[in-house]
Amino acid sequence: MRRLFSACLTATALAIAAASAQAGCAGPSLLDRLTPAERASVETAAATTPFGEGILWRAQKGDRQIDLIGTMHLFDPRHDATMEAIAPTLAAADLILLEMTPTEERQMLTAMAEAPEVFFITDGPTLPDLLPEDDWIALRDAARARQMPGFLAAKSQPWFLMASLGIPPCAMGDLIEGRFGLDKLIINVATDLGTPMSALEAWTTLPELFDEIPADEQLEMLALSVLSPDLQQEAFVAMLESYFQGQIALIWEMSRMSASFVPNMTEQEAEESFAMTQELLLDRRNAAWLPVILEAADTHERVVVAVGAAHLPDTTGVLRMLEQEGWTISAQQ
């Protein structure tokens, strides 16, 4: 069970996080590691996934309209072309729904000061005391590669450190320099236009999901979550190219296949870990978002939903759920 959760979270970082387009994130692709049979399997699964291709969609029901944008959370200069394409949609919106708005960002920063125990170990043994020495050294080095000081990593709660390690070292420069992903670009436009924004969930959602996992299992998940730098960078290169080709289901299936590169992971364990990933971090969140989206559509004429692209496809994705509620879904690209 512990190893399954570790692989689950590793795969989630690969599938949902995003890549930078800077030269440091260039190079070989994870797809190049796959055998012809593995690649064919990934491509076949992606091709049969509902709403598996595209990042711009529209849902219509009567005179109501929802525009949905599948985002990438980190910087890439090709976002400029996407922003140009969606500019009329954003200008016409009277509400924009996001995973997190500036309000939730401020709440999270306030919590770091007022409730630091959510993010950091404030009492008792820290990670170097709780983990085997080799595991701690690997985690410390991975954190340093992302410009996180060792002392800060040592005091991080497992969920917070795992989230931090989900960002590849090659993308850290962009974050530090204030270059962000599509979500932030949309927020900036909404702010300039004066368009109301609302969050689909509280910022506490992720730590609350981790709270469901026993502390000892979180530690083992953390210890097993460090991928080799080469493998992680290859995964982000593959995601980057697939995202801008609109191949969102391919990203997810590629990440499912990448579990085979986790040491001591059997095929059955990999499949079980992905089932957990979808249940905890995609399906449950999507289901919780649906009534928020529908309520917004009842009270606003033009709603925009901008969320991580992995939330849109598949039978439990936001698009299929809207379709099941009687909305007509059409691709906008």
Automatic annotation (TrEMBL):
Coiled coil: none annotated. Keywords: Signal. Residues 1-23 form the signal peptide. Pfam families: TraB_PrgY_gumN. This is TraB family protein. The lineage of its organism: Bacteria, Pseudomonadati, Pseudomonadota, Alphaproteobacteria, Rhodobacterales.
